[in-house]
Please model this.
Amino acid sequence: MAAIANGRKSKRVGILALQGDFDAHAKAITRAGGTAVEVRTAEGLKSVDGLVIPGGESTTMLKLLNIMNLVEPLAEFARTKPVFGTCAGVILLANKVLSPSQQCFEVLDLTVERNAYGRQIDSRVANISPGPDFQNRAGVGDVEAVFIRAPIIRRVGPGVKVLAEYAGDPVLVEQGMHLAATFHPELTDDTRVHKLFLSKI
Ligand code: GLN
Model:
């Protein structure tokens, strides 16, 4: 399914819009050349080709996903279509969550520790140097990574490819069609990470 924008096909990317910084992701997807569609229902999920799960508060998002009966539809979606999780989104997609443990979708073979860099005051902006796999596909140069009460990926499974690290920990990873960043690429003007996701749809 694709919308026509400027005479060419543009990919329809759902932005899970229950809580968190979904609006910034919608703008980033638009800047990257996709068509952003806010998704709040199972019906909405059916109309998109990929889905972004934004940063925010994973516990609140979980509650809302349960209230909106979106848990099973989202799990089903991730079986066949690409999902891009950022920060809280990575926590939801992981297969094990620490500190504390909580429900997760087990889409990515990752163990993540919530709020692992410290409290709110410990949020930071860092320059990271993605590896050649990212640079070859998405473009060369460092990426400005904004971390906000970010999780740390403590374990990656054998099927997970690490595209970038910060301070020795993976911060941008992919597993098959899915992508995950513990930082917030939607908060900078650099569209490379969102373009990489679009290329996977
Ligand atoms: N600390 C949040 C959580 O545990 C994630 C923070 C974010 O998404 N910026 O869900």
